[in-house]
Design goal:
The structure is a single chain. With 238 residues, the chain is an alpha+beta fold. It folds into 2 domains: 3-82 and 219-237, 2-Layer Sandwich (Pseudouridine synthase); 85-217, Pseudouridine synthase (2-Layer Sandwich), CATH 3.30.2350.10. Helices cover 27% and strands 34% of the residues. The chain contains 7 helices and 15 strands. Strands 2, 3, 4, 5, 8, 11, 12, 13 and 14 form a 9-stranded mixed sheet that branches. Strands 1-15 form a two-stranded parallel sheet. A two-stranded antiparallel sheet has the order 6-7. Strand 13 and strand 14 (220-221) form a beta hairpin. The longest helix has 16 residues, at 30-45. It is elongated, with a radius of gyration of 20 Å. The model has no long low-confidence stretch (mean pLDDT 90).
Length: 238
């Protein structure tokens, strides 16, 4: 989308409230993206203050759709956040890492000779539905006022309470051992790294996430998202 108007009109549009769809770059935190958008709007439009927030975080090792709200639209973030999510996850079987993704190194190897495409499909069926999911220790959950991942990186022992989530659909997209791709449709608050962990355990093996793309959030889809460079280029002042 091209945003073309006078600075005054664009200021009114963005402070009045807009929903922006972005494809988050790999290695960026969700806050990195929000901060960059704020910098662009402030510098290009000459505003000193503007509200910007996101409707659902993505891990640094993930890419894909992030719903960004500006101005008065930030009041509706919770409603956008509550929508169903869809992901394309790449999972490596036969190994684990402490974070259950690429942030940390492999800590254990497991057998995979017994794993077949048919067995995976059966276990995916068993992992669908409403369930209590234990969040990864390397997560942004708060533990005594500190993010869980900070405790985990420091080697501090702790536990996280399980959360009720719904995984409504799991579809095996690709089977090329030891890697598989799974399309996941799930509720807000579902950790895909925890899903990878649980899948590995259900297969009497191990697993961790090597790639993750969020393709949908509620009614919004990745095909309509911009990257940050496109957004800056399409912000045209008249």
């Amino acid at each position: 989308m091209i945003y073309s108007a006078t600075p005054e009109k664009l200021i009114k549009e963005f402070t009045g409230g807009k929903v922006l769809l972005f494809n988050k770059p790999l290695y960026w935190t969700s806050f990195d993206l929000v901060r960059k958008i704020k910098i662009i709007l402030k510098s290009r439009l000459g505003v000193k203050k503007i509200k910007i927030g996101h409707a659902g975080t993505l891990d640094p090792m993930a890419t894909g759709l992030m719903v960004i709200c500006t101005g008065k639209e930030t009041k509706n973030i919770e409603s956008y956040q509550s929508g169903e999510k869809e992901y394309l996850a790449t999972v490596r079987l036969g190994a684990t890492t402490p974070s259950f993704d690429l942030e940390t190194d492999i800590d254990k190897l497991y057998p995979t000779d017994h794993i077949t495409e048919e067995l995976i499909s059966k276990k995916l069926e068993n992992l669908t539905g409403e369930q209590l999911q234990h969040p990864p220790l390397f997560s942004a959950k708060s533990v005594s006022g500190t993010r869980a991942y900070k405790h985990a990186r420091s080697g501090i022992k702790f536990e996280l309470n399980p959360s009720l989530v719904v995984i409504s659909s799991l579809q095996l997209v690709s089977f090329q051992m030891p890697y598989i791709e799974v399309r996941i449709v799930c509720s807000k608050g579902t950790y895909i790294r925890a899903f990878a962990r649980d899948l590995g355990e259900s297969l009497s093996s191990g697993a961790y996430l090597t790639g993750l793309i969020r393709t949908r959030s509620g009614i919004f889809e990745i095909k309509d998202a911009l990257n940050i460079e496109e957004f800056e280029r399409n912000l045209i002042l008249l």
